[in-house]
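Researcher: Last one for today. Full complex below.
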Amino acid sequence: MSRLLRQPMIVAGGVLLVAVIVASAAAPWLVAADPIKPVFGQRLQPPRGLGGAAGHPLGTDNLGRDILARLLYGGRISLVLAASAVALAAGAGVVIGLAAGLVGGRLDALVMRLADVQLAFPVIMLAIAIVAVVGTSPAALVSVLALSGWVLYARTVRAAVLTIRRLDYVEAARTLGAGDLRVVAVHILPNTLAPILVLGSSQFATMVLLESGLSFLGLGLQPPQPSWGLMLAEGRDYLSNAWWLATVPGIAISLVVLGANLLGDGLRDLLDPRLRQ
Amino acid sequence: MRSYLVTRIWQSAVTLVGVSILVFVILRVVPGDPAKMLLPEGAPQSAVDELNRHLGLREPLWVQYGIFLRSVVRGDFGQSFQYRSPALRVVVERVPATIQLALTAMALTVLVGVSIGIVAAVRQGSAYDYAGTVLAVLGQSLPNFWLGIMLMLLFGVTLRWLPTSGFHGWQSLVLPSVTLAAFPTALVARLTRSSLLEILGQEYIRTGRAKGLGEPRVVLRHALKNATIPLLTVLGLQIGTLLGGAVITESIFAWPGMGKLVVDAIFFRDFPVVQTILILSATIFVVINLLVDLLYTVIDPRIRYG
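Model: Here's the assembly. Have a good evening.
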């Protein structure tokens, strides 16, 4: 634990992420304004320091809704979607990777070719096509994001299985009568946890970017939902007279992505013995 | 060498077949009634029947796939309903704009990314190194759709130096290509730095210095040359990032390329065009990465004979 706290990147990334998560989770207690209901009398008010009213610290949008409220409630949706997508991708990827590495042969070849096919599509294009066919429900969104993410885990776990299963201590365990399941659960999985953690952390950043990118294009969450990507898209039409509309949600996305990236990089440095000094 | 080539070409062919199966499944099997999707809304029943017959939609799935594959290989991707002409022609007309944008972004990525990486590695721990790292982390964290809008706000709306949309001369290319290049540039800068640092610690670099080679020669000729393989791999994979990023960048800046076309096509429910773009972009990606792998054999004799 103390080694963890001596890593500036992990601390900075962790603090950033925790701050955003706590603020989003506490949204109903932090802001009184409704994130969805329009208040037409209060359209496009600037943030507080720029001549706006005290009631709206970050100003209001084109429908008079409080931007801080939309930001915090939007954070709830974005973070939950991204976290679910990472969990689903990691779960599926680990199982597929284990199976490919342990069974080998045709299954392995099939999985690796599937991974190639998956990687051949720019994620966002694949996501666009799928969302266009199955619709823009949150469940569809999570599945699309997970579909784009499983390959990383599958490849990593497969490679780990192939290396670890040949090591002496695994041989020894087998000689002592340990079955496949025991070898996987006790000897192989724990050794793949570190890279999975690193991947998951960096991928959380990618998922937040993808979800907000899709919502920005109009293919993710739909209005009047408070989504960061959607807020950015709505703000784009008001660049010349209300620049804060597009600026604020972008800062929120950047902070989350920055936090997750820093955490991922820090964890990688910490857990990869080759990089440890 | 022969077997490496044959394996890679075989793998690429298999991947392309997989690509066609995936597109087939997404656009033909998932929707339930593809004829409704592949025809404009309000198409007469006779047109639905005709398309069902043409695509063999009453046949078993594998027969349908065979018909699909045959028409794709022939270049028949159906009619775009938005433009009322063959989907392939509609897409191909937009390809040059995307290539222009992607190549400019790629050039920026290599020039800026590799330079930042070299300076950071050679002056490890200096202010340059930290500045480079901060820039790289930012480049990887700023969403490109936001970066694009902020550049637009600053240089287009506020300063009025550059056009914010459309396709008129080199000035229009500046903001979209910078937006598109930000992420891969950051990646390349970090990779160049870390591979160079690893290589600069090797024995033969010490030998080079010991025999009196100047520092620029050691870094540029001996070290950088050995960093090209990981760099090429990452650049090859970035083709996907550029094609994907083009979707968002082109939409922001109204750049008339494939990326804007695919988003427009989705909203018009112009599935023949969507299908064409999916297959075309995946093919571009697979072919370029195959070429990158073949290039290794030219650069690194160990791969050729190994």
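Residues 180-217 of chain A form the longest helix (38 residues). Chain A is about 70% helix and 0% strand.
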